[in-house]
């Protein structure tokens, strides 16, 4: 009997790993089939440009994404912007694989891994991030892989495993700072398990610190890129020091380390918290729960979630307490935030833990209900279809009729909004088509201002595809960039080199006089101002 049991455990582990690999492969195919085919609006367009040309993205700079983007831009054929979107899809597949392997490391059966990984890969925010150019799938993949290696380190006690987990945690922080509370929790557990009381002296902590610092090394790329890039460097094409934008001055923003520390820590936003507003915290808690159990995990996931929490926390081991701690910390991090627009993004670490406990509970229910492996796999597929379809249906319904007194609907960070049951962007070419139409009507040598979302495809077309190198683009930040416009009109004859606004920036309207307008098919008006702007 003991020999049979000894053979069964490795076989079960192999089956669970195979299920994780199969779901990851399927997810990758789906993500690639539904991904955006070309340049995108806003942050996605900016990241596509910077990844292909080099430079520095908006805070927090995203060095790891940019370095990997160079590689994908070189290896992948086709539309250059699509190559970077492919990278998002690939790391979406890696994230699903990392999630499935984590479930396998936690001891789930093949059916539990199959159902749990499918639910995770089909959740809206993960799918949404995988079909456009975004940093989020890379961040998810790094974090989930770090959790898998952490579990191995907790079991083996080997300092190499702990250092490997610390490296992946450091790397995660170079992808997105939303994972900072979770990363600190994992590092705390690793430090406790590798402390001097474990018989290693300080060697364990040295290895842990070395691994973490090594993971942060991509930040050095930003130091390298800052003095070498201009048009694709956020620090230069958006920050106007002469106008003291964001309170910065040439004296406080002189050295590369001053500049990179500012962008890497995301200090542009200085988001306020709701700590002093208990009603605000309560509203955030309600919104977070509503968003998760309507549009992400879905209402039917509440049952396996409760089972999963009870299963793991009744006699918890270190990893179980760590996962629960990450869930609580990440939930609290979002609860005190005032930036509702970023709710899905900053909720991701919490959503990952919810998905983990849902998968654990689903596995427990399947093992109890179905004795044989093959029928259990079929039951897992049926459970996936039932649980996953409802949040997508609610999302589509809420896009037309928001739900409840808080008017819940899916919050998307930027355009385009996805209202279809199956998330897809594979036919979305509007940024390229509208951008090319705009470039055809903009006068030669113009100063072109527009909102962030609108101007990024234009910058891409110029910097990556070489179109209209005569134009100067300006992502308008009011009121600081009035100073940049003032310098322009002092230097040039506006009859020859006019101001152009692609779409009207409301705060800019009082400063304009006698602007000509040109309607772009399926797009915004282009306003052409050949007389000086009115300054405050």
Number of strands: 5
- The helix/strand series, from N terminus to C terminus, equals HHHHHHHHHHHHHHHHHHHHEHEHEEE
Counting structural domains, the number is: 2
Q: Tell me the helix content.
A: 55-70%
Overall morphology = globular
Counting H and I runs of at least 4 residues, what is the number of helices? Answer: 22
> What is the alpha-carbon Rg in Å?
25 Å
Strand proportion: under 5%
Low-confidence stretches: 1-6
Strand arrangement, major sheet: 2-1-3-5-4
Which whole number gives the mean pLDDT? 90
Major sheet, described briefly? 5 strands, mixed
The N- and C-terminal alpha carbons lie at a distance of 86 Å
User: Which structural category do the helix and sheet elements fall into?
Assistant: mainly alpha
């Amino acid at each position: 009997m003991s020999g049979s049991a000894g053979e069964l455990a490795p076989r079960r582990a192999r089956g669970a790993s195979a299920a994780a690999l199969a779901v990851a492969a399927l997810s990758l195919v789906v993500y690639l089939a539904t991904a955006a085919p070309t340049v995108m609006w806003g942050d996605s367009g900016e990241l596509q440009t910077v990844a292909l040309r080099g430079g520095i993205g908006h805070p927090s700079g995203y060095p790891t994404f940019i370095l990997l983007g160079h590689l994908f831009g070189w290896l992948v054929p086709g539309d250059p912007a699509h190559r970077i979107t492919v990278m998002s899809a690939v790391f979406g597949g890696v994230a699903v694989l990392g999630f499935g392997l984590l479930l396998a490391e936690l001891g789930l059966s093949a059916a539990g891994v199959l159902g749990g990984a499918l639910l995770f890969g089909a959740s809206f925010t993960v799918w949404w991030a995988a079909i456009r150019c975004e940093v989020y799938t890379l961040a998810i993949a790094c974090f989930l892989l770090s959790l898998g290696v952490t579990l191995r380190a907790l079991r083996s006690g080997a300092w190499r495993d702990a250092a490997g987990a610390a490296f992946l945690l450091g790397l995660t922080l170079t992808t997105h700072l939303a994972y900072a509370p979770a990363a600190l929790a994992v590092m705390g557990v690793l430090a406790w398990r590798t402390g001097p009381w474990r018989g290693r002296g300080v060697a364990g902590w040295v290895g842990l610190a070395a691994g973490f610092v090594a993971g942060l090394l991509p930040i050095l790329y930003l130091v390298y890129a800052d003095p070498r890039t201009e048009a694709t460097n956020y620090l230069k094409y958006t920050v106007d020091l002469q106008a003291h934008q964001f309170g910065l001055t040439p004296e406080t923003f002189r050295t590369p380390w001053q500049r990179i520390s500012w962008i890497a820590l995301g200090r542009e936003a200085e988001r306020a918290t709701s700590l002093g507003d208990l009603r605000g915290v309560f509203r955030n808690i309600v919104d977070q729960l509503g968003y998760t159990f309507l549009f992400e995990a879905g209402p039917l996931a509440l049952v396996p979630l409760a089972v999963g929490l009870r299963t793991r926390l009744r006699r918890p081991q270190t990893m179980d307490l760590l996962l629960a701690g990450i869930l609580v910390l990440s939930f609290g991090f979002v609860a005190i935030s005032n930036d509702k627009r970023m709710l899905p993004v900053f909720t991701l670490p919490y959503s990952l833990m919810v998905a983990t406990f849902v998968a654990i509970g689903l596995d427990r229910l399947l093992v109890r209900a179905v004795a044989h492996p093959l029928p259990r796999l079929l039951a897992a597929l049926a459970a996936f279809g039932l649980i996953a379809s409802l949040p997508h249906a609610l999302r589509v319904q809420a896009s037309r009729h928001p739900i409840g007194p808080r008017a819940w609907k899916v919050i998307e960070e930027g355009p385009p909004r996805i209202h279809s049951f199956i998330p897809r962007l594979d036919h979305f070419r509007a940024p390229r088509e509208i951008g090319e139409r705009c470039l055809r009507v903009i006068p030669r040598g113009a100063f072109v201002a527009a909102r962030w979302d609108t101007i990024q495809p234009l910058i891409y077309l110029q910097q990556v595809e070489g179109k209209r190198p005569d134009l100067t683009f300006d992502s308008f930040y009011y009121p600081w960039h009035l100073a940049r416009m003032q310098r322009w009109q002092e230097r040039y004859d506006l009859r020859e080199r006019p101001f152009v606004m692609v779409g009207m920036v409301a705060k800019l309207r009082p400063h304009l006089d006698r602007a000509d307008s040109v309607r772009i098919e399926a797009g915004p008006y282009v306003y052409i101002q050949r007389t000086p702007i009115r300054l405050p």
